[in-house]
Amino acid sequence: MEITKSNLRIFRQDFKNTVESLQKEYEVTIDMKNITYGTTDFHFKVEVTNGDRAEAERNKFIATLKRNSWKYPALNKDSYGKVITIGYNKDAYRIVGIKPRAQRYPIVAIKESSGKSYKLPYEVVETWLKDNENEN
């Protein structure tokens, strides 16, 4: 096999198709991460998470939160998927992840109107959660 960018794209798709049956059989999600390659070899990381795609994302959120709960005391396992409204236009964002190594914008959220992913500062999310906790 000639190791080129286009051949690796084809390999990635073939790999994805091949592991699809394993995902169904074992009820896991298998992700192929970035490929690093040279002229004679290539390698990549394979990440396997319990559950289907949606359940796997929730499980990753909860696991990350457990390891880093001291950094994000306002968040809990029920924060995954919670819709918050922030900004001048009161845009709605759904919390879908945490990136604990990101110092300024560790919270990952999807804008409801566009489906686009955004990084948010924890302080903004924390303030919204505390303000709306009092309303409920």
Q: What does this entry show, briefly?
A:
The chain has 3 helices and 6 strands, in the order αββαββββα.
What are its keywords?
136 residues; alpha+beta; 29% strand; two-stranded antiparallel ribbon; elongated; 6 strands
Please provide a written account of the structure.
Helix content is 38%, strand content 29%. It has 136 residues and is an alpha+beta fold. The strands form two sheets. It has a four-stranded antiparallel sheet. Strands 1-2 form a two-stranded antiparallel sheet. The mean pLDDT is 90.
Shape: elongated
Instruction: State which percent range the strand residues make up.
Output: 25-35%
Query: Mean pLDDT score, rounded?
Result: 90
Largest sheet: 4 strands, antiparallel
Count of extended strands: 6
Order of helices and strands: HEEHEEEEH
The first-to-last residue Cα distance is 60 Å
- Report the structural category: alpha+beta
Q: Count of DSSP helices?
A: 3
- What value does the Rg take, in angstroms? 19 Å
* Helical content class: 25-40%
Strand order in space, largest sheet: 3-4-5-6
